[in-house]
Amino acid sequence: MFLIDSLNRSLKKKLILTLLLITILPIFTLGLINYNNEKDLMTEQVFLFNKALANDLGVKIDYYIQKKMNQIDYLASESYLTRDDLLSFQELYQGFELVYLLNQSGVIEAISEGGLEVKSNYYGDPWFQNAISGQNYISNYHYSEFIDKQVIQFAIPIRDNDKIIGVLGAEINLNAIEKIVTDTIEDTENSEVYLIDNTGKPLIYNKEKEATVNSKPFQSLIQFVLLKGKNGVKEYKDEKGVNILGSYKFIEKLGWAIVVQQSSDKAFAEIRRDLWINLFVILGVGVLVALIALKISKSIFNPIDELKKNMKRVSKGDYSKSVNIERQDEIGELVDSFNKLIEQQIDIISDLKDNSNKISATSKKLFKSADKSHNANQNMAEYIEDTVHSIQDIAAINQEISSFSEETTASTQSGKEQIDEAMLQITKVNNCIIQANQASKELAEESKKIREINNLITNITDQINLLSLNATIEAARAGKAGLGFAVVAEEIGALAKETAKATSNINKTVGEVESGIENVLNLVSQGTKEADMGDKIIKEVAQSFEEIATAIEETSLQLQDASLSTQQVSEKSEEVKDSIEDMNVLSKGVSDISFELDEMSDRLKDIINKFKI
Q1: Which of 76, 189, 409, 582 could be stapled to 168 by a disulfide with Cβ–Cβ 3.0 to 4.6 Å?
Q2: Within a 10 A sphere around the Cβ of 28, how many other Cβ atoms?
Q3: Confidence of residue 5 (pLDDT cuts 50, 70, 90)
Q4: Cα(552)–Cα(538) distance, rounded to whole angstroms?
Q5: Residue 492 half-sphere exposure, CB side, CA atoms within 13 Å?
């Protein structure tokens, strides 16, 4: 479980394991397959070799026997043979122990070896009967009747014009056959050769292996070969239970069998040695491939580990060093890309640091501008408040003038009815005119003050417009962070325009009031003159009163217009006051936002300062 967790957490271990598996596993798999194939092939080769060995021995022995038979047959082709012919033949053809000539009666007429004891007649012997009847005879391996040796006896009929006139006999020993076996089988120490005649009697064998010859498995094999006349290889156990590999060959002309056997351990010793060599070669190749795979994996992962260390350093904010790995492969391209990324990050952090400083400075300027705007709006509100009070005073005066005009009209009408009290009324009118004159002058003075206040409002509005423009410019410099400020600046500019419009209306109304006041002053002056002349021109009193009544009526209308204008100015002033209060709120918001922007800029500086470049 720990190994699986370790593999899941390490790409390096996964790749090394994969590389080892895709290199070593096929090698071992192919090695095992090759091992099994070679084992089967070499086992088959051992079987085939032993089979071929037995077959080769059988062929050579058969050829040797056939050759001797042909040699005897060649000699038997001569109708009349002497002992000298037999000696010459024996000298010419090596391997013959004895050659002898018998007539039709079975009596020996000539023999190559002198001084031997022979029977007077061999007519009853089976070998003679076979030969005299026209058949070639080859005996089993037996003790010779003529010499004290084990021999193989040949008997061939001698013909003269297809008439059998005698028998030619010859005997050979097994030395030549043993030499054939010895020359054919080089490893005689590990291989045991058994030449078996058609009765199952061993002709050639190791005397120490008597128990093997008499063992049941061996006898079963011999009987199988002799009965079936088969050639092949068979694996069996000897009398000691040892696995034996036996190859056998049936010599058809002789009816003999040749068996070559060796222990399976010795037979397959070379196979096992070769297989072990192959196994060690496979293991060696596997180890070599594993070492090469580890070397390759190290060449891949050492720079990756170095890159990983640098990435951890960069993740902690340290951009002070680049990765120094020189390679021409994909890892080198990855390192170059990583170094370029570090350079880009350094440039971004530097730009961010510069922009942070600019934002901080801009926010501080904006905070100061907002504070100044707030103070200016506060002062403007106070000025507007005073203006409203002054306008209210003007309205009160206009109301008084209006009331006075009504009284004057009534007095004029009474003067028409009571001419006797004209002088008294004229005196009163004169006094009232004087008061009206004084009030008109005061109203003119107040109008001037209104104009001055209105001019002040206009100047303040211009300043607000200028501040709004500056705020818009600063917000544009701030980019996305200044979008909110730009909206606020636009609202302030709009309010300033409304204020300018309102002040323009106030100036117009004040102009009308001043014009009316000027008319009032003229009328009052004229009334004063008429009053002075009242004593002299009493007859014109009625007409003067008419003119006064008309003038007062006009004055009343003008005062009504002035009162209406004053009321409008008062309402606009209230609107201006409300706008200024809104501007104060906006200025306060701009100030707060500027303060927050400054704090954010400081925090951004703290974050940027964590990076080491």
Answers
A1: 76
A2: 16
A3: low
A4: 20
A5: 32
Task: Report the pLDDT averaged over residues 238-251.
Answer: 75
Does the fold of domain 347-609 match that of domain 77-176? no
| Homologous superfamily (CATH) for 186-269 | PAS domain (3.30.450.20)
End-to-end CA distance of the chain: 43
- With beta carbons less than 8 A apart as the criterion, state whether 252 and 62 touch: yes
Q: What is the pLDDT of residue 96?
A: 92
Provide CATH code, domain 77-176: 3.30.450.20
Residue with tokens 């005996």: 139
Angle, alpha carbons 197-103-141 (nearest 5°)? 10
Note the maximum CA span of the chain.
230
**Over residues 239-265, mean pLDDT:** 75
User: 280-291 as b/e, with b when 16 or more CB fall inside 10 Å?
Assistant: eebeebbeebbe
Helices and strands of the chain, counted as H and E runs:
13, 11
Return the number of other C-beta atoms located less than 10 Å from residue 351's C-beta: 10
The domain segmentation of the chain, as residue ranges, is 77-176, 186-269, 347-609
More confident residue, 338 or 119: 119
Q: What was the pLDDT predicted at 168?
A: 95
Phi/psi of residue 135, nearest 5 degrees: -110, 145
Band of pLDDT at residue 531, cut at 50, 70 and 90: low
CATH class label, 347-609:
mainly alpha
Q: Token digits for 4?
A: 């699986």
Please give the Cα distance from 594 to 600 (Å, whole number): 10
Q: Provide φ and ψ at 403, rounded to 5°.
A: -60, -40
User: Which regions of 92-162 does DSSP assign to beta strands (E)?
Assistant: 96-103, 108-111, 137-138, 142-143, 150-160
Q: Residue 118: which H helix or E strand, with range?
A: none
The answer to whether the pTM exceeds 0.85 is: no
Question: Which position has the token pair 């962070």?
Answer: 481
Residue type, 233: V
Average pLDDT score, the chain:
76
Which residue do the tokens 């790749």 mark? Answer: 15
SS3 category, 248: strand
